[in-house]
Amino acid sequence: MSAADERLRRWRLVLGGGEADGTGCGLEGLDARMDAALAAVYDQGPEQGRGQAREGGLGASAPRVARWLGDIRTYFPSTVVQVMQKDAIERLNLTRLLLEPEMLEAVEPDVHLVGTLLALNKVMPDQARESARALVRRVVEELERRLAQKTRAAVTGALDRSARTHRPKRVADIDWDRTIRVNLKNYLPEKNTVVPSRLVGYARRQRSVQREVVLCIDQSGSMAASVVYSSVFGAVLASMRSLKTSLVVFDTAVVDLTDQLHDPVELLFGTQLGGGTDINRAIAYGQGLITRPADSIFILISDLYEGGVRQEMLRRVAAMKEAGVQVIVLLALSDEGAPFYDHENAAALAALGVPAFACTPDAFPDLMAAAIERRDIARWAERRTDV
């Protein structure tokens, strides 16, 4: 096949065929089957130039959908399959069919699919629940393989660096920048040097709890991916003895899931995506979990659409800041960037010195390190290209 023919073939697959696609290219064999799989989702509605309905669609048959899922996994890479699955669920309203066990066995597991299944948790029949739980566990285990080691390394390093001592045991433990600054009064011009009378260094291998972390997660429908990632990160942080980690989810009520942090799959099935939002009530509960404000990090993950008392919410955040708590607001913890969010509340929080921004899962470990070291989070976010 010539380069020109290959270009026409690719454009034909992109445009979907019909008189108006302009390629004049026919498809056979594997190409025709790939085109049919794409048409089932993307060729809905009147055909361009004809006014007649295209023959796309998956119907309402679970076996037919399961076959289609098997086909696209054969024709396309997993990243494309995940996009097509998500589009099929949204465009063709296949949510009900996800309750069928054969469907759950055929899909490519991903974060968005987990969010959809969690939203269906309360109406899921027992037969489908076990298949759903196995699928969720596969996604969680993959996320843990991807994120756990980086998170533990970033947090451990930050804790080591933030633990100061005036008696460092090794030369490698001396913080030379701070040591020079505190000894500038001992500068000898004739020697062009500083004579340190006091060393500042890092205290290593502290075994007691050094930080309290509270994750407060909005479980409204738009936050599904954030709920999944937050649960995985919460489980990783809870496994570290130097941190005391709590996790609560909220809509109009608040549910403390800290005792489920040992198993993020059980934790996820304890959430209930959808419903209203009372951020003020959630912050009030999370505030009550903090016993050492100066050593605490409070992370609110929410789109900030408040159904509760807005002014009281802002007063609580201001009070935590005043007490020494490191407060961080994430509009999302996902790969998709910031969702629709309440700009007025975000601006009010920024005025309190609490910037609100979206964060990718890959950037979250570094964010935790910055928070532990009490760096300027607004400046950290400005410097990052992946938040």
Automatic annotation (TrEMBL):
Q: Which SUPFAM superfamilies match?
A: vWA-like
The family database entries (Gene3D superfamilies) matched by this protein are listed as: von Willebrand factor, type A domain
Q: What is a single Pfam family found in this protein's UniProt entry?
A: VWA_CoxE
Task: Note the coiled coil stretches, chain numbering.
Answer: none
PANTHER family recorded: OUTER MEMBRANE LOLAB LIPOPROTEIN INSERTION APPARATUS (PTHR30634), OUTER-MEMBRANE LIPOPROTEIN LOLB (PTHR30634:SF16)
Q: What is this protein called?
A: VWA domain containing CoxE-like protein
Originating species: Nonomuraea solani
